[in-house]
Amino acid sequence: MARPLTLVLTALVVLLAACSRDKGFDPERLAVGPGGLVGNGPPITSGDFAGGNDVLPSARQAPLPDDSRPPDCDGECVSFCNAANLHNPVNRGLCRSLWGVGLSPRPIQRAEACRRLFVDMTGRVPTAEEADATCSGDWGATVKGLMDSDEFIFVNQRRAADRFLYSNEVVNLQAIYDMDRLVEKLYRGKVPYDQFAAVVSAHPVLTRRHAAPGDKVEALFRLFLGRPPFEHEKADMSRLYWLWHSGYYDHPQLGSRLPDSFIRFRCLTEEGEVDPVKKGECTSVLWGYHELVVTPDLRSTQDRQINELTLWNGLLTVEEWGQLQMPGRVLSQEVAFWERAVDDVLELYLGYDLSAQVPEVRSELVRWLLENQGDLRSVHYAVLTSAAYLQSNEGETPTAYRWTYGPLKQLDAEVWIDSMARNTGYATTGCDHRLSQPESLLRAGSLSTYRVLETSRWSLDAQGKVDTRYANLARTLGGCPENIVGGRFKVVSILTTGTQLSFVNELCNPMLEPSKQAAPIERLLPEGVEASRALTAELANEVASHQYRVLLGRSPTAEELADIQTSSSQCTTSRCSAEAFARPLCFVLLSGAERLFY
């Protein structure tokens, strides 16, 4: 009798906890899910990673390799790289395809490197003052400082939303908030990557998003191995997902039915015990013997649609979550799992698949990640301080190997809009990657849904409706995805170019139309310069230098200043004001390719 009594008491405790949680509904603490059960201690590493300040060798004197085939590292090349004393794993892996065979990376200017780093790590283009203040010292310390910032966390949370396709019409918004919390813990260094994958493998963001067991397996493989499963892999691992059921949870405060995941009790006898005949249907044997069966108790309810006992995932115990995370733990034992982890970071920052061209880089990074206890931040740090990242995409090279020149990528829509607004002081709103369909919350019509939206990154207008101006612009350019069918996209087309020029025109107001809500002229002129002041050649230079530093994050070149003099001379003869020169110049600078690519 002791065991049934223990089960009853456990169930009552869980139910009471659930009731008390609902009574204490807090829109700022919506997260409910397995992400709250892990990563609640200190970071797994100190975050002070080595390899940030390698002294790069000069290229070995050797005949340049033939572009038609990969460079061949002979014995002298191997000895050269072994003696180079490189600590950064990317540099170590790259040596035998770069310095060791007589090649050199392209030198990069500090301002270009800092701009690239800001966009990748904070999601915006810096002003020249920010770049000077942040990137003037030790590069490794600069990367570490930005990695510890809230902006770095937020940018990676938004990337995770794209990766997992958050949609509050498909998944319970509380589970989405929980996943967002889990991603923060990953990038705070509190959760190792294998544990992260284990939690994701049983997380409602995955199990509710994908319907059939085979779909869940395919999603898991693509997320963490970068490939679809083979048929025998799908058939075997599907047995570990047979328990999951997609249903709806009636939220007591939000006043609506939320899509969510439930557990069905399979592979059991009529008495609720493990069926020795059926349990094979809930057991994976391809990666070892893994049996996954959950037994019912007082927490279980009858689902009339499927006529089976089910259990809402919000009532699962810590031990049950541990059982259900078996698929992720299985995959993390594969070498391909760790290879995919480092490949994703390389692709993110370099924009191309370096591992496929120089496999030694992947090997070094996998070893590095495991040495750092699965702390994914270590890989971000290694790539951002490597020679592969810190080289220019401009200039000439005697070879065409992709790793001998730096990345050139297109800005995400939100990065483009946010940078424009921040640099010019233009007032704008935003969108919230956790709630891709905010209108669905408003349809519930409860006070709690309004409280959720008020505490989110969405803005409400005077009528209480969602302000979608920012989202509409971003979605035309591929950002703020709704994630119902597809996700984010990047494209250069007539439509996107027209949309971008229209926004820049509204922001800069080059025609000085009085009805436009443009950027304040004070941000486009040097401090103390009045908008009505008559333009001179000297003032034109001051305005140009100011805008280049504020809008492009750098000082103008001598050639650019010469062009400014030519343009301003036409304006000074007609007695232009400082504003009449500054606003068209703003339009020219912000509509250029330098604001679209980095």
TrEMBL record:
Q: Which domain of life is it from?
A: Bacteria
Name of the protein:
DUF1549 domain-containing protein
- PROSITE patterns attached here? PROKAR_LIPOPROTEIN (PS51257)
Species source reads Stigmatella ashevillensis
